[in-house]
Amino acid sequence: TGIHLLNVMKKTGKKLSELAAPVQDYPQKLVNVKVADKENWQAYPEIQSAIDTVEKEMAGDGRVLVRPSGTEPLLRVMAEAKTEDLVSRYVDQIVDVVKQEMGSKED
C-alpha cells in the first residue's frame, strides 16, 4: 500500500523513481474462456498440469494467473512474459487445455 511504500522510501532515503527502476514491465495477455461451470476448473488435473508446464517454462521470468470471473460464466487466463510471442504462446497453451477439458461455451 501507499503507506508501506512511503516507509520504504523513508528508510532507504531513495526516491520512488529509484525504487521502481529495477521493475521491468512485461507484455500481458488476457483471454476469457466461456465455460459452463467456472467454479470447478481446479478439479481438472490437465488444466493444472498446463499451468505448471507454463510456469516451469517461464522459470521465474513471468507469471500466469487462471481464475473464474466474479460476474460472468468465464475462466480468465492471463500471463505476462518477456516477449509478446512468449506471452501469446503461454496463454494459448492453457486456453487450449481449458477448452479441451471443460469445453468452450459459445454465444
Automatic annotation (TrEMBL):
<protein>
    <submittedName>
        <fullName>Phosphoglucosamine mutase</fullName>
        <ecNumber>5.4.2.10</ecNumber>
    </submittedName>
</protein>
<keyword id="KW-0597">Phosphoprotein</keyword>
<feature type="domain" description="Alpha-D-phosphohexomutase C-terminal">
    <location>
        <begin position="30"/>
        <end position="96"/>
    </location>
</feature>
<dbReference type="InterPro" id="IPR036900">
    <property type="entry name" value="A-D-PHexomutase_C_sf"/>
</dbReference>
<keyword id="KW-0413">Isomerase</keyword>
<dbReference type="GO" id="GO:0046872">
    <property type="term" value="F:metal ion binding"/>
</dbReference>
<keyword id="KW-0479">Metal-binding</keyword>
<dbReference type="GO" id="GO:0006048">
    <property type="term" value="P:UDP-N-acetylglucosamine biosynthetic process"/>
</dbReference>
<dbReference type="GO" id="GO:0004610">
    <property type="term" value="F:phosphoacetylglucosamine mutase activity"/>
</dbReference>
<keyword id="KW-0460">Magnesium</keyword>
<dbReference type="Pfam" id="PF00408">
    <property type="entry name" value="PGM_PMM_IV"/>
</dbReference>
<dbReference type="GO" id="GO:0008966">
    <property type="term" value="F:phosphoglucosamine mutase activity"/>
</dbReference>
<dbReference type="InterPro" id="IPR005843">
    <property type="entry name" value="A-D-PHexomutase_C"/>
</dbReference>
